[in-house]
């Protein structure tokens, strides 16, 4: 009884969340919006994942069994778009919404109404994109990279919907990024200077600048696709004086920073979790900040490494090879710093830490294959094969998505006020860890042996590998349902979480009670 | 029943395992360049392995030795400038070590000068076309795997999806230059054994080269997503000794010449309906069915149907024109230079009289020829 009274005391009347559907529709509360982003991204993760299941089911055996090649292409395309723009990016925005104000001691995001809008346009964007799959002629089938002229002259009419939905996603991301920047720059608690900010805040600040820089480029690319297809322009049509390769330059000028948009916040998460469970401060804080900045700057100088086979001057190939190799230096610094943080720490292995450790190892494996791909002469062999598919799934699934899982486990007690079920969390981890490797590791071999990506059927030498990969895929997909179970269980109840459930955790978010009250830091804390 | 199922499953396991020796690494290939690429690949791979062993070794060491369970008190250090400089500079030096051989290989790969033979490679949805520069020889190269194998109605052959009706033939020991372009979307011409992969961009011409030392058959695939049948446009190259190659190309020139003469002769002749329909069906299935489907229905919203449409039923001139000259801005190719007059006449006749279309129109080679010369 006394605890209830205590809570009532703590929250006066306007601290209560409004109830009913309008709470969610009209909310300007960063915690509500953060939760909505996270649930949305999880739903999209399942939607995009089920498309991956269709792909893996078709590829289980050579020959065409389940879907026709045109539908297969729609699945690869929409799987990619959904995962990138629907699962990974909104998950990070959700985490930013929840955690950045609490980490810097701010009462909310700086622009709460825009925050509401930037979330609520997203479901419409994806409703449009997913609905286009049911159109006559099917949805987008030109790969998530939508290379012209396959996406212009040779695409079906759903392209217009694809363009529109990408525009909405872009607007949402830009608004989210503006909000993050304005919040971080203006709403830090007294004493929280830049070099005292948690790395998650730092990495998100840099990510937000990347977003503002490149999302308009993507908007430009899709608009040119739209006008080429419907309004008679010839940006990418050689017959009208355009150049299809220019599309790729524009796309990858967006696309390469985009891959860092999807990984920099991960670096921030891992830099919070590893020190917490090693009970030791992060090694090389300032070098982590500088490394993140260096990666962000280099990310604008490497785009054409996605295009080595398009036929570039040798000098350009060399430049992009060297610049790409250079990225491994700051990335390496980060990995070394994490290992040095663990070194002579006092380590425990709760689920967030398990995911963080798996992140470091598997992301580094993805980094190694990335370094291999940077070497232009060998890239000619790897390019557009399953080796590339293995590479980017290692950095995005066992990288970005593992870090999101780690973050969810790490902050769930703060969000819900309950400890999650540690046993189930570990079960989820081990199932995910094993299956993700069964799923993606053999893809390296398929690619090296010569299997191109984005094919619905393959020659017989790849049959065994694909069967293993598909089994890993189904197992990984099913494992994520354990996560759903853990989260629902944790939201509904469980052991009461203290304000700071992790012994070694640092940061302002642990100074407020769990669950975090609807409004936190209305009076800014003093940071020493 | 059940035991039989289990025994047959068990019996199939060793068969499945031995049916194909699963290759797990990059091919060394058959050219000097492909060997250099392979060596680079292995060097980088080993460097990554060593770095990985060191980093992961240190990680696992702390995961085992520095556990809280062991009663370890955490250290408090969180900075060391010397260490930070070391692990910035050392990787940088390793990278320089990697960049040197990579650069020299790259320069050698991109040097297309002083070639002995030049072939123009043109990709289109979904086939390759080869044209020899110094000889009057050109032909299309289509997937030769039967549809029944793809649809699992027949057992899959050894070179399933990696076989074509007419492979490219090149001489061994000579520098062969490929000029690569496309008629529609972007394709990518890839033969792993040559370490050659180059995009075929519509409206632009890319260059690549190879010098094969060993005679043999080398297989590859299109590597850039190019639409529905991207997975079904393989590349097959046969490398022959120069003497054999010369004999082959002379023979091909002869055959091309005869075909032209035959074409002229046929202009004066008429084919019967049965002949037209029979030839038309096979041409249709080989060239048109990929998009318009074997039943002529197409795919709604993507590829138009040919059944009961106005053009097919009522507008013969437009029908011949679109087959011969294609339709700009769509996936409909110009078949005028892909098929012979006889084949064009037959396939148009077939389309106008199959699947319930019953115009009764018979199109002859001479009719088609008028549109070809337009």
From TrEMBL, chain A:
Cellular localisation: Cell membrane; Membrane
Pathway assignment: Energy metabolism; oxidative phosphorylation
CDD domains xref list: Cyt_c_Oxidase_I (cd01663)
Main location: membrane
Pfam families in UniProt: COX1
Annotated transmembrane regions: 37-57, 77-98, 119-142, 162-187, 199-226, 259-277, 289-308, 320-340, 352-375, 387-412, 424-445, 465-488
Keywords annotated in UniProt: Cell membrane, Copper, Electron transport, Heme, Iron, Membrane, Metal-binding, Respiratory chain, Translocase, Transmembrane, Transmembrane helix, Transport
Stored InterPro entries: Cyt_c_oxase-like_su1_dom, Cyt_c_oxase-like_su1_sf, Cyt_C_Oxase_1, Cyt_c_Oxase_su1_BS, Cyt_c_oxase_su1_dom, Cyt_c_oxidase_su1_bac
Cytochrome oxidase subunit I profile domain residues: 24-528
Catalytic activity: 4 Fe(II)-[cytochrome c] + O2 + 8 H(+)(in) = 4 Fe(III)-[cytochrome c] + 2 H2O + 4 H(+)(out)
Domain of life where this protein originates: Bacteria
Bilayer topology annotation: Multi-pass membrane protein
EC number: 7.1.1.9
Function in brief: Cytochrome c oxidase is the component of the respiratory chain that catalyzes the reduction of oxygen to water. Subunits 1-3 form the functional core of the enzyme complex. CO I is the catalytic subunit of the enzyme. Electrons originating in cytochrome c are transferred via the copper A center of subunit 2 and heme A of subunit 1 to the bimetallic center formed by heme A3 and copper B.
Similarity-based family: Belongs to the heme-copper respiratory oxidase family.
Protein name: Cytochrome c oxidase subunit 1
Taxonomy of the source species: Bacteria, Pseudomonadati, Pseudomonadota, Gammaproteobacteria, Alteromonadales
UniProtKB/TrEMBL annotation, chain B:
Chief site of localization: membrane
GO cellular component assignments: plasma membrane
Molecular function per GO: copper ion binding; cytochrome-c oxidase activity; heme binding; oxidoreductase activity
Alphabetized InterPro entries for the sequence: CcO_II, CcO_II-like_C, Copper_CuA, Cupredoxin, Cyt_c-like_dom, Cyt_c-like_dom_sf, Cyt_c_oxidase_su2, Cyt_c_oxidase_su2_TM_dom
Cofactor note: Binds a copper A center.
Domain Cytochrome oxidase subunit II transmembrane region profile: 18-113
EC number annotated for this UniProt entry: 7.1.1.9
Residue ranges annotated for the Cytochrome oxidase subunit II copper A binding domain, each copy included: 114-251
GO BP terms, alphabetized: ATP synthesis coupled electron transport
Transmembrane regions listed in the UniProt entry: 43-64, 85-109
Catalyzed reactions: 4 Fe(II)-[cytochrome c] + O2 + 8 H(+)(in) = 4 Fe(III)-[cytochrome c] + 2 H2O + 4 H(+)(out)
Annotated keywords: Copper, Electron transport, Heme, Iron, Membrane, Metal-binding, Respiratory chain, Signal, Translocase, Transmembrane, Transmembrane helix, Transport
Signal peptide feature range: 1-19
Location(s), subcellular: Cell membrane; Membrane
Domain of life: Bacteria
Cofactor(s) for this UniProt protein: Cu cation
Top-level class of the enzyme under EC nomenclature: translocase
Its job: Subunits I and II form the functional core of the enzyme complex. Electrons originating in cytochrome c are transferred via heme a and Cu(A) to the binuclear center formed by heme a3 and Cu(B).
NCBIfam families xrefs: CoxB
Similarity comment text for this entry: Belongs to the cytochrome c oxidase subunit 2 family.
PANTHER family: CYTOCHROME C OXIDASE SUBUNIT 2, CYTOCHROME C OXIDASE, SUBUNIT II
Name of the featured protein: Cytochrome c oxidase subunit 2
Protein species of origin: Pseudidiomarina maritima
């Amino acid at each position: 009884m006394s605890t209830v009274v205590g809570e009532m005391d703590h929250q006066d009347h306007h601290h209560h969340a409004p109830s009913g559907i309008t709470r969610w529709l009209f909310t300007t509360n960063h915690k509500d919006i953060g939760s909505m982003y996270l649930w949305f991204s999880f739903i999209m993760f399942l939607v995009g994942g089920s498309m991956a299941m269709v792909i893996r089911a078709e590829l289980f055996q050579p020959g065409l069994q389940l879907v026709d090649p045109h539908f297969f292409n729609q699945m690869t395309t929409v799987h990619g778009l959904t995962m990138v723009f629907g699962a990974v990016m909104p998950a990070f925005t959700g985490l930013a919404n929840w955690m950045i104000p609490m980490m810097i001691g701010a009462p909310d995001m700086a622009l709460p109404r825009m925050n509401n809008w930037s979330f609520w346009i997203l479901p419409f964007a994806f409703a449009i994109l997913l609905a286009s799959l049911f159109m006559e002629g099917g949805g987008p089938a030109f790969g998530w990279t939508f290379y012209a002229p396959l996406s212009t002259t040779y695409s079906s009419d759903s392209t217009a919907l694809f363009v529109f939905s990408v525009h909405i996603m872009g607007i949402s991301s830009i608004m989210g990024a503006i909000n993050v920047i304005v919040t971080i720059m203006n709403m830090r608690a007294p004493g929280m200077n830049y070099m005292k900010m948690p790395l998650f805040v730092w990495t998100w600040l840099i990510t937000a600048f990347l977003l503002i820089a490149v999302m308009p480029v993507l908007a430009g690319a899709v608009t040119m696709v739209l006008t080429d297809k419907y309004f008679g322009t010839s940006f990418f049509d050689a017959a009208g004086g355009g150049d299809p390769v220019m599309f790729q330059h524009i796309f990858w000028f967006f696309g390469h920073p985009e891959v860092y948009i999807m990984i920099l916040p991960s670096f921030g998460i891992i830099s919070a979790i590893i020190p917490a469970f090693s009970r030791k401060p992060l090694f090389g804080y300032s070098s982590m900040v500088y490394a993140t900045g260096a990666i962000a700057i280099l990310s604008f100088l490497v785009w054409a490494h996605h295009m080595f086979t398009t036929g570039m001057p040798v000098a350009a190939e060399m430049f992009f090879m060297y610049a790409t190799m250079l990225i491994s230096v700051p990335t390496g610094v980060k990995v070394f710093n994490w290992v040095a943080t663990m070194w002579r720490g006092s380590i425990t292995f709760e689920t967030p830490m398990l995911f963080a450790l798996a992140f470091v190892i598997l992301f580094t494996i993805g980094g190694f294959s990335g370094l291999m791909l940077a070497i232009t002469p060998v890239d000619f062999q790897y390019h557009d094969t399953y080796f590339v598919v293995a590479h980017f799934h290692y950095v995005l699934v066992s990288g970005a998505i593992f870090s999101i899982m780690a973050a969810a486990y790490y902050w769930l007690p703060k969000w819900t006020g309950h400890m999650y079920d540690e046993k189930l969390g570990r079960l989820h981890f081990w199932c995910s860890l094993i299956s993700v490797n069964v799923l993606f590791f053999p893809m390296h071999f398929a690619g090296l042996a010569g299997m191109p990506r984005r094919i619905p059927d393959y020659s017989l030498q790849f049959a065994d590998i694909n069967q293993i990969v598909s089994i890993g895929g189904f197992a990984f997909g099913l494992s994520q349902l354990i996560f759903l179970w853990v989260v629902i269980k944790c939201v509904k109840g469980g052991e009461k979480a203290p304000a700071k459930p992790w012994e070694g955790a640092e940061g302002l978010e642990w100074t407020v009670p769990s669950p975090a009250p609807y409004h936190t830091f209305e009076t800014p804390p003093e940071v020493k | 029943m059940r035991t039989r199922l289990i025994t047959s499953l068990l019996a199939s396991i060793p068969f499945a395992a031995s049916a194909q020796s699963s290759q797990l690494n990059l091919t060394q290939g058959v050219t000097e360049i492909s060997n250099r690429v392979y060596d680079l690949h292995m060097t980088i791979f080993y460097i990554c392995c060593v770095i990985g062993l060191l980093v992961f070794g240190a990680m696992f060491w702390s995961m085992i030795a520095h556990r809280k369970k062991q009663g370890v008190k955490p250290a408090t250090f969180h900075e060391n400038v010397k260490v930070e400089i070391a692990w910035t500079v050392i990787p940088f030096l390793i990278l320089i070590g990697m960049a040197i051989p990579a650069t020299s290989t790259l320069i050698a790969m991109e040097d297309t000068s002083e070639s002995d033979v030049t072939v123009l490679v043109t990709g289109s949805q979904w086939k390759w076309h080869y044209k020899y520069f110094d000889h009057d020889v050109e032909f299309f190269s289509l997937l030769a795997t039967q549809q029944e194998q793809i649809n699992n109605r027949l057992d899959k052959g050894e070179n399933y999806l990696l076989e074509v009706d007419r492979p490219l033939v090149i001489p061994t020991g000579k520098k062969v230059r490929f000029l690569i372009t496309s008629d529609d979307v972007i394709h990518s011409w890839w033969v792993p054994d040559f370490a050659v992969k180059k995009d075929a961009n519509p409206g632009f011409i890319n260059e690549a080269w190879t010098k094969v030392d060993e005679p043999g058959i080398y297989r590859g695939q299109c590597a850039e997503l190019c639409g529905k049948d991207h997975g079904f446009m393989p590349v097959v190259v046969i490398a022959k000794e120069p003497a054999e190659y010369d004999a082959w190309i002379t023979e091909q020139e002869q055959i091309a010449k005869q075909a032209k003469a035959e074409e002229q002769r046929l202009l004066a002749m008429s084919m019967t309906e049965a002949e037209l329909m029979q030839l038309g069906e096979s041409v249709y299935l080989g060239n048109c069915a990929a998009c318009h489907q074997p039943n002529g229905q197409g795919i709604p919203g993507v590829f138009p149907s040919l059944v009961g449409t106005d053009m097919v039923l009522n507008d013969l001139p437009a029908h011949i024109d679109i087959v011969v000259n294609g339709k700009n801005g769509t996936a409909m190719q110009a078949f005028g230079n892909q098929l012979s007059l006889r084949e064009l006449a037959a396939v148009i006749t077939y389309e106008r009289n199959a699947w319930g279309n019953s115009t009764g129109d018979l199109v002859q080679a001479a009719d088609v020829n008028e549109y070809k010369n337009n």
